[in-house]
Design brief:
The protein is of the alpha+beta class. About 45% of the residues lie in helices and about 30% in strands. It starts with a helix and ends with a helix.
């Protein structure tokens, strides 16, 4: 071996540990960066999952999913609270571990039917909560199908509509009372355009129901009463909320005048107090007026 070759070999031997050290350092850096990225990705996933869980636990709607007809998956706080249990007492538990056997059997049979549907199911049903109260729940089952078309799990949600349903029932009852009332009942916008009038009112004013929305409440008043409406009735309603007294109406079909006792008042938004409509209730007192005059 000549001197040049010997020197080159010595140089390579001296460089080899340095190169190995540099290579190991690079590998360590790459590994460290990969670990950091994995940790950042894991932290991101955990943060997103935490935010989603927070959102689900701050809504009133109950949300849960079923792994199979007999087994809970995850549940949100609203669902756990409705049942009066902690989330950990529900999540990933079988129904037989939570409720009596007879009730569990009924629930499982219902869930089996929902799993078999393989399509969204929407129902309203009365359910007793942990306080012993009967609540009407609008419940939705949304199945998640796998590639084979079988149900993998079912996402469920339930909204308590008890108060809304009771309000709707009361409104329907009131609507029936208004519909069959012998008094004129009218609803109008704040500028006086009619939006509703019951049958008795239509008969009094000679209107077909389809014609109501094409008229203003002042159309039924003779011209000499319009200043009274402008200067007395409307200002009183706006300042005090209501006005009542005797008026004269005109039948829009025949032109005949008749006497009425009227209560006019403002309908306001229950939550904001903002005026929404004008309402008028009038009773025909023509016969009484004639009797008084005699």
């Amino acid at each position: 071996v000549d001197a040049a070759s010997w020197n080159a070999m010595l140089k390579r031997e001296r460089l080899a540990p340095i190169l190995i050290t540099l290579l190991l350092s690079v590998l360590l850096i790459v590994f460290y960066v990969a670990q950091m990225r994995n940790r950042e990705a894991r932290d991101l996933v955990e943060r997103i999952a935490g935010e989603q869980a927070l959102l689900l636990d701050t809504i009133d709607t109950q949300v849960w999913y079923l792994k199979d007809p007999d087994t809970y998956g995850a549940v949100n706080q609203a669902h756990a609270a409705f049942l009066g249990l902690a989330r950990e007492d529900l999540e990933h538990k079988k129904f037989r571990e939570i409720i009596p056997e007879g009730e569990a059997r009924m629930v499982i049979e219902g869930d089996r039917a929902d799993f078999g549907e393989k399509r969204p199911v929407h129902i309203e049903k009365w359910v007793t909560n942990a306080k012993g109260e009967n609540r009407l729940l609008a419940t939705t089952w949304m199945p998640r199908l796998n590639d084979a078309g079988d149900v993998e799990f079912v996402v469920c949600s339930a909204e308590d509509i008890t108060d809304r349903k009771r309000t709707e029932t009361e409104v329907q009852k009131l609507a029936e009372v208004v519909r069959h009332s012998s008094e004129l009942v009218n609803l109008a916008t704040l500028d006086g355009h009619m939006t509703f009038m019951n049958k008795a009112g239509c008969d009094m004013l000679g209107l077909d129901p389809a014609e109501v929305t094409g008229h203003s409440i002042t159309d039924a008043l003779p011209d000499y009463l319009l200043p009274k409406v402008r200067d007395e009735i409307l200002p009183t309603i706006m300042s005090k909320g209501s006005w009542e007294g005797d008026l004269t109406y005109r039948n829009l079909k025949t032109g005949n005048l008749f006497e009425v006792y009227t209560i006019a008042f403002m309908v306001k938004d229950a939550s904001t107090g903002q005026p929404l409509y004008l309402s008028v209730v009038s009773r025909d007192i023509t016969d009484r007026k004639r009797a008084e005059e005699q």
